[in-house]
Amino acid sequence: MSDHDPRAHEAHAAWLERVAPYLDDELSPDERRVMAQHLAGCESCRRELARQQAVSRRLERLGEATDPAPEATARAASAEAVERRLKQRLLSPAPRRAASRPLWAWLGWGVAAVQACVLAVVLGGPSWEARQGVPMVRDAVADFRQRVSGALPPQASRDTAVLARTLALPIERLEGPGVEFLGAWPTALQGQPAAALAYRVESHTVVQYVVSGPLFFNRASVRDAVAREGRYVARLGDHAVVGWPGDNAGSLLVGELPTERLERLRL
Asked: pLDDT tier at 212 (50, 70, 90 boundaries)?
């Protein structure tokens, strides 16, 4: 696929949407054979498959590690109610919208979504987070504001391989029509090492922050959003934030663009 052909880029999104049903064994034998042939020759779809496999494994481990303490028994009925409502919402037929994710793609995250919501209820809910937001996201937006107000840091480089080795983080650059990579440098979010990658998109600067998997999945609201939709979306004032998981890492894309535009950049 050409990274500079908008039509090819849009057409390839249909292949990316088939990754989830392929992973969940929802395709017919013929469809699965065709998808396997496509995966053999498409690095982008293989990365997406590895990303979804990594997230499923991590969320399954989170669910297995959840052992409610005796004092949480009084909230069990509430947790069961959340589970019933979530299953009904995920499994009941719903009208399809042109820009929405197909129902079969949502089902792949169903079990993990139930686990994340039940965990939040059993632990009493993210009340502090609801008031203050996700600290990792706040740090990313604060760093973004500082960076876009001036020049890139002097240590910024176009060699992301060296940065990935230095930080022990898997770094995947964004590529696509109208996306110009400017440089990358080390930074920190929540006191933990992170990589920052700057891009020029439609005369705007956007920054992708790559963090470790444990930091990315640290908050219940992020786990829940990823389990249900495959991504985390937030807005802090004029700044949109889109987060998605990778293989043992996660990315946060920050910019002063419409949220929908940022979401399209990661396809």
From this structure: very high
Q: Which residues lie closer than 8 Å to 129 by C-beta, 6 or more apart? A: 219, 220, 221
Q: Is the whole-model pTM more than 0.85?
A: no
Q: Whole-angstrom Cα distance, residue 175 to residue 191?
A: 28
- Which ranges of the chain does DSSP label H, i.e. alpha helix? 6-17, 19-23, 29-41, 43-65, 76-91, 103-107, 110-122, 127-132, 135-148, 160-167, 213-216, 220-229, 259-265
pLDDT in tens, 57-115: 766 665 555 555 554 554 455 445 544 544 444 444 444 433 444 444 444 444 444 44
Residue 228 within any structural domain of the chain: yes
pLDDT in tens, 134-183: 999 999 999 999 888 777 888 899 999 999 999 999 999 998 888 999 99
Q: Domain range holding 179?
A: 129-265
Query: Could you tell me the CATH number of the domain that includes residue 217?
Result: 3.30.200.100
